[in-house]
Amino acid sequence: MDSVLYEPREGYALITLNRPDKLNSFNEEMHSRLAEALDRLRDEGRRAVILTGAGRGFCAGQDLSDRNFPTGEVPDLGATLDRLYNPLVRKIRALELPVICAVNGVAAGAGANLALACDIVLAARSTKFIQAFAKIGLVPDSGGTWSLTRLLGEARAKALAMTAAPLPAEQAEAWGLIWRTMDDDALMDEAHALAAQFAAAPTRGLALIKQAIQAAATNDMDAQLDLERDLQREAGRTTDYREGVAAFLEKRAPKFTGR
Among the residues of the chain, which ranges form H helices? Predict the structure, then answer.
């Protein structure tokens, strides 16, 4: 059984983590298959993507049964991050299209932080986000310390990371950690509707919005104003901008091509 499923749709794709018997926890093979699926988006010219999990959970993080170190060996977990998790997070953040995460059930450890690396996070009401690292003496990784602190502030970030307390989806939405919570049986319909909307949108413009907002975390105001100027110059040269203006003046729906 493939550990990652890739399903093309009209203008977008559905990527499903597919180790449901292991709560979709990561092993090396799943890392490789997910990287291939994300690269396929670009090769096929997809304009949006949904990332979700098979079965009763989104992703439980690292599969600890895959950590079979010889007795007495001291593992280098930093090397694992350099080789697997950090490239994955960077790849998602760099994709020039909207990445929708439809979180179904538990999202723990690196699984929670994989979700937070996506652009728009939808969660089923049954979902819980768990920074489980402290339970085994580790530090939140896969961008977790960055995302939690940036989105929630230092006090909440420290409490969630140090206690490993489950954060229910509705509380995550109320705190601004995710975009929206909905009933479990409505999750995928909402995700597909949003992906279809993005697949018909001005893709290059959305990619530039993503770039600008991600840069704002580290830019000061002057640097951000300069970046907005540069990105707006680029957006103004796209075919979709010309189409958008023409459609507005002609009082019709625009037909964007993503270019």
Answer: 28-44, 77-80, 86-94, 110-116, 144-152, 154-163, 169-174, 187-199, 203-215, 221-235, 239-249
Measured distance CA(31)–CA(26) in Å, rounded: 7
Give the pLDDT band of residue 65 (cuts 50, 70, 90). Answer: confident
Spatial separation of the C-alpha atoms in residues 98 and 92, rounded to whole Å: 9
**Residue carrying the six token digits 């096929």:** 44
pLDDT in tens, 208-220: 999 999 999 999 9
Pick the CATH number of 203-249 from 3.40.1350, 1.10.12, 2.60.40, 1.10.150: 1.10.12
Are 187 and 124 spatial neighbours (Cβ–Cβ below 8 Å)?
A: yes
Q: Where are the domains of the chain?
A: 4-199, 203-249
The 10s digit of each residue's pLDDT in 112-130 is 999 999 999 999 999 999 9
Angle between helices 154-163 and 144-152 (to 10 degrees): 140
With contact defined as beta carbons under 8 Å apart, do 150 and 119 qualify? no
Question: Could you give phi then psi for residue 57, rounded to 5 degrees?
Answer: -150, 160
Q: Enumerate the β-bridge partners of residue 124.
A: 182
**Residue 73: CB atoms within 10 Å:** 7
List the CATH code of the domain at 4-199.
3.90.226.10
DSSP states along 110-153: HHHHHHHTSSEEEEETT-EEE-GGGGGT----TTHHHHHHHHH-
- pLDDT over 90 for what percent of the chain? 95
Residues 6+ away with beta carbon under 8 Å from 32: none
Helix (H) or strand (E) holding 23: none
